[in-house]
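Private note to self, pasted from the team thread so I don't lose it. Backbone tokens:
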């Protein structure tokens, strides 16, 4: 049997746990040793604890560095997470490297974990990289800027990549390792798998990449039945969702049945929007129970929520709150399966957009076409593809035997 380290370094959404849970669970069921390094312990505890999967704190900066300007591309994300300072980056890499040396994995699954990837390069550990289109941008040299934003220019993205590379190569030098020629070397590896669908790729569908579909793990959920109402609308909202008050007021004033997943809200915050047709839950909701009968899904662009309802043929109303969500929302809009809220919005304008989404048959038709096109999608089959790949690259060793490189003298000077 083999030892596997699964990592989650960047990103705050629960979708990262949803990706790792089915893989970790199945690896454990097959008799392997598994350790998960997670960014957020409070979020991971109720997910991995009940099923007996061990987890530890992933090395990361609890508070990143603010961007001097708006982020232009992938490198700016890295710079905000410690790659702007070679000493901090060395410290983070050293932490990952020490974790690898202590656990001695035969293979690593890196989920949005660029610094962990530096450490696996140093330790020469076989590594599978997974992510969506935003987390794994097109592997050009240099990496492209975020598309569709006036401030995100190729020159600025290239300058940020140059700064990140200088610091990454300084760290690699301390470990006596070859330099990176570009950040694309962290992305364009043989064992990179895109856990999304081509139509949902933030940069648009690409050739010559391995799309395996979203990893929609079975996180612990609460089953809620639809309340009474003229239409059935699911909403996934966070306190920082754009146009939040307008959305909640529109739902409250409508005659619709609404089930709202609202993590991070207090009861008092939501009381003003209560009515008989609205049900709120701070606990994860069983989306598969609700999606088949939903008329619309309202969200800030939450990846797992959007994918689940689109795969059920449900059109989307999206109020994106960051660059990643805005890029995702444009893909849904391009499909013709959703409406994106932009600019100034009021409760009336949101209500009108929601009514348009529910009554204009074209949105439902496009969502149904997407669902039909991916009718063979199976979350477990996606997880199995990744697991089979992990097993294929790991060489089991005898009890007590060290793997060749992580215990070699690859220690920073």
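Design output:
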């Amino acid at each position: 049997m083999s030892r596997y380290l699964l990592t989650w370094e960047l990103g705050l959404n629960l979708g990262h746990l949803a990706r790792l849970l089915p893989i970790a669970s199945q690896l454990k069921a097959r008799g392997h040793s598994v350790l998960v390094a997670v960014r957020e312990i409070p979020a991971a505890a109720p997910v991995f604890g009940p099923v007996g999967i061990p987890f530890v704190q992933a090395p990361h900066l609890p508070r990143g560095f603010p961007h001097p300007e708006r982020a232009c591309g992938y490198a700016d994300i890295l710079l905000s997470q410690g790659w702007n300072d070679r000493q901090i980056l060395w410290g983070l890499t050293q932490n990952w490297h020490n974790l690898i040396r202590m656990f001695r994995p035969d293979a690593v699954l890196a989920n949005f974990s660029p610094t962990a990837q530096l450490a696996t390069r140093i330790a020469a550990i076989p590594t599978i990289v997974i992510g969506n289109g935003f987390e794994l941008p097109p592997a050009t040299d240099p990496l492209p800027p975020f598309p569709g934003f006036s401030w995100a220019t190729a020159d600025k993205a290239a300058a940020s990549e140059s700064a990140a590379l200088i610091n990454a190569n300084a760290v690699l030098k301390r470990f006596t390792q070859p330099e990176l020629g570009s950040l694309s070397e962290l992305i364009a590896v043989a064992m990179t798998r895109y856990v999304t669908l081509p139509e949902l790729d933030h940069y648009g569908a690409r050739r010559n990449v391995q799309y395996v579909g979203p990893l929609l793990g079975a996180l612990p959920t609460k089953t809620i039945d639809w309340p009474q109402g003229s239409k059935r609308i699911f909403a996934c909202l966070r306190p920082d969702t754009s146009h939040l008050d307008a959305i909640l007021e529109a739902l409250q004033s409508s005659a619709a049945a609404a089930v709202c997943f609202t993590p991070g809200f207090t009861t008092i915050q939501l009381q003003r929007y209560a009515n008989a047709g609205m049900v709120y839950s701070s606990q994860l909701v069983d989306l598969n129970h609700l999606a088949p009968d939903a008329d619309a899904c309202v969200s800030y662009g939450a990846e797992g929520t959007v994918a689940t309802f689109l795969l059920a043929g449900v059109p989307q109303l999206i109020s994106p709150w960051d660059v990643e969500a805005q890029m995702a929302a444009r893909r849904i809009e391009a499909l013709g399966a959703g409406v994106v809220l932009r600019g100034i919005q009021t409760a009336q304008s949101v209500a009108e957009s929601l009514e348009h989404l529910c009554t204009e048959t074209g949105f439902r038709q496009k969502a149904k076409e997407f669902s039909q096109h991916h009718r063979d999608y199976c979350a477990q089959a996606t997880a199995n593809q990744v697991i089979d790949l992990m097993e294929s690259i790991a060489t089991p060793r005898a009890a007590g035997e060290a793997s060749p490189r992580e215990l070699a003298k690859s220690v920073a000077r």
